[in-house]
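My convention is simple: the sequence line spells out the residues, with the fold written below as integer tokens. I include a record here:
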Amino acid sequence: MNLIRSNLKPLADARGVSIRKIAQDIDYRFESVRTMYNDEMERYPRDLLAKLCVYFGVTVAELLTLVDE
């Protein structure tokens, strides 16, 4: 079974930035950022993906990973 996993936690941890700080910086709901950070999100809002890609300077392929489980 293939699943999409969020790489937000490793990206944030590598920069030493908190979930709350990310949410404030990209002007997005904390709960949505927290859900993606904890890899609990089932649907990824396009605007959130775009803001996170710009914020971290990554592509969607670097933010999300397709894994086989």
Q: What stands out?
A: The chain has one domain: 2-68. Residues 2-68 form a domain with the 434 Repressor (Amino-terminal Domain) fold (CATH 1.10.260.40). The beta strands are 2-6, 64-68.
